[in-house]
Amino acid sequence: MTSIIVSGSFTQGHKIQVDSMLGSIRCDGRDILANFGQAICGNAQITFDSQGALVDAAMAFLPHKVVHMHFPGGTEIQVNRWPNFINAKVQMSKQVDQDGVCGNFNGNPNDDGGKELHRRFGHGVSQGECLFANPIPEHTPVKMPDSKRCSPAKLAQAKSVCHQAAAADGWSYAECLGDVCDEHTHLQSIQAQEMQHMATKALS
């Protein structure tokens, strides 16, 4: 992810946006917290500091830039801001009429997967519901992972997994192959090394 927005009745209509370090932190379109500190946006207490567990341990070598959003009812969202992407962690209890990628708390995990979410919500977010001013168009991967990303043995394993998984959950076959190939490989470390070259400028 490169940005996250929290809004709706949950925030009393206010809009909180947190970008990577290439962007900013905004409340209702207004920049806040250019440096470490605290701010209020509607019913949310927002803290920007260097504290908090990492969502992605591969980025541990970089200075930590962490946004904590605290909402009534104990809901908390932590966003780790990196040079050109973010990680986010949501901690919450059941909400009235909740549904989506965090589950619906109906006691049935079988309807929380991709196929069921696509059935209920469609593919992607409609233009009228999108909160981003300049959204990235939906892209469904179709290109097979190359040999640098996935060894022949790993690709064979990925194919055996994805023929069934992609059909069952409604995901792109190529996207599934990429996810399986990336799992437990050195790819994250390579990405982390590339990110280090960008860190000085973006995090200064």
Please summarize what this structure is.
This protein has 204 residues and is of the alpha+beta class. Helix content is 26%, strand content 21%.
Description:
β5 (37-41) and β6 form a beta hairpin. The relative contact order is 0.12. The protein is globular, with a radius of gyration of 19 Å. The protein has 4 helices and 9 strands, in the order βββββββββαααα. The protein starts with a strand and ends with a helix. The longest helix has 18 residues, at 152-169. α2 packs across α3 (173-182). By secondary structure, it is an alpha+beta fold. The strands form 2 sheets. Strands 5-6-7-8-9 form a 5-stranded antiparallel beta sheet, with no helix packed on it.
Keywords, separated by commas or semicolons:
204 residues, alpha+beta, 5-stranded antiparallel sheet, 4-stranded antiparallel sheet, 4 helices, 9 strands, 26% helix, 21% strand, globular
- How far is it from the N-terminal to the C-terminal residue, by CA? 21 Å
H-E order: EEEEEEEEEHHHH
Number of helices: 4
Main-sheet strand order equals 5-6-7-8-9
Instruction: Give the averaged pLDDT, no decimals.
Output: 80
Which runs of at least 5 residues are low in confidence (pLDDT < 50)?
184-204
Q: Beta-strand percentage?
A: 15-25%
Oligomer: single chain
